[in-house]
Design a protein that fits this description.
The structure holds 2 protein chains of 2 kinds. By secondary structure, chain A is mainly α. Chain A has 7 helices and no strands. Classes of the chains: A mainly alpha, B alpha/beta. Chain B: This is Large ribosomal subunit protein mL43.
């Protein structure tokens, strides 16, 4: 549906809404060729299904985003549970560590790069324990995880040593 | 537009063209035009001024000129995979025809349709795709299942009974801080 000029727009409109009903039926056939019932050949039957299909395609643009978010949340919950965390604290810990990965990327990591995802949970746990929110996790974080706070401590330590 | 009406495909680079050597996928171009009428003016312009430059730059592309009296001008391009695309260049100026030819030159011959994913990779996973065994202890490989130790219920927060018992024990041992039953657990 790309009209870059008025002549092009009127050309496409003529294909459908001319006085000749041939074009109206042709448009319907272009939409309904893959139907199994008589709707693929008969206008008055197929036009109902075609209108419903077009209506659904407008609705589903919104619904797809909602459903994908739900799917990602479910997957992240499962992935975080494998590392003894819940999704919300995990995301909270990441946000506080300024790791701005969105849900889609995190689920892709959880599926295809599970060790990276494990490291992310470690970072999140460490950060949460530094902020005093250890109750959100069932096990304590590992000692070898480096975060901003630990870097600050080390730099302060080395400065003091000098 | 419902997604099943028009075909859709995955993104692909045919035969990894360009990874080693790049082979131009455009095989031949047939330019039909009229020698006299107005709609072919741009086509005639193109043939006079820009065609030879195109042929010199692309020696692998064969160009046929097909003069047809009183017919509207058309561009017919054929690709190495056998596909053909035709396009009307009725009343197009010569510069537009140049641009369209360039577009056809840089395409692989695959049909343009909706991409299900805008990326493709032969190796989606470096560390190995997740399996149910990925995050499980490897000692389970040599364990007899069902195993009481592993199947035990993981401890939740202290139950009320356990809190009272632990408070009573603390009182007996004489540490007052743990004895407060009403104290909230640390969150």
């Amino acid at each position: 549906m790309v009209f870059l000029s008025l002549p092009l727009f009127s050309r496409s409109k003529r294909l459908v809404m001319g006085s000749n009903r041939f074009y109206k039926i042709q448009q319907m056939l272009r939409f309904t060729w893959h139907y199994r019932h008589r709707g693929r050949n008969c206008y008055s039957i197929g036009i109902r299904n075609m209108r419903r299909a077009l209506r659904y395609s407008t609705m589903w643009r919104k619904l797809k985003k909602i459903q994908q978010t739900e799917l990602f949340n479910q997957r992240l919950e499962a992935a975080a549970n494998e590392h003894n965390m819940n999704r919300v604290p995990f995301m909270e810990g990441l946000a506080r560590s300024q790791i701005q990965l969105d849900r889609k990327v995190l689920t892709d990591l959880a599926i295809y790069e599970p060790r990276t995802f494990q490291s992310l949970t470690d970072v999140s746990k460490k950060r949460l324990s530094e902020e005093g929110m250890s109750g959100m996790m069932q096990i304590m974080p590992r000692k070898d995880v480096i975060t901003q706070q630990s870097l600050r401590k080390w730099s302060a330590y080395y400065k003091a040593r000098k | 537009m419902p997604s099943r009406v028009t075909p859709s495909s995955y993104l692909r680079n045919v035969l990894q063209n360009g990874v080693g050597r790049y082979v131009c996928q455009l095989q031949r171009v047939t330019l039909s035009f009229c020698k006299s009428t107005n709609p072919s003016r741009g086509a005639r312009d193109f043939i006079e001024n820009h065609l030879l430059e195109f042929t010199r730059n692309n020696p692998g592309v064969v160009i046929y000129l097909d003069p047809k009296r009183h017919h509207s001008p058309k561009l017919c391009v054929e690709y190495l995979n056998g596909r053909t695309e035709t396009m009307s260049i009725d009343r197009y100026p010569a510069e537009d025809i140049c641009q369209w030819l360039d577009h056809f030159r840089t395409r692989s011959g695959v049909q343009i349709n909706r991409l299900r994913k805008n990326w493709h990779t032969d190796t989606p996973s470096i560390q190995g795709t997740w399996t149910p065994a990925t995050n499980r202890p490897t000692s389970w490989n040599v364990t007899e299942f069902p195993c009481q130790e592993i199947s035990r219920r993981l401890p939740d927060k202290e139950t009320a009974t356990e809190r009272i018992l632990s408070a009573a024990k603390a009182l007996r041992e004489g540490s007052p801080t743990n004895a407060a039953i009403g104290k909230e657990t640390e969150l």
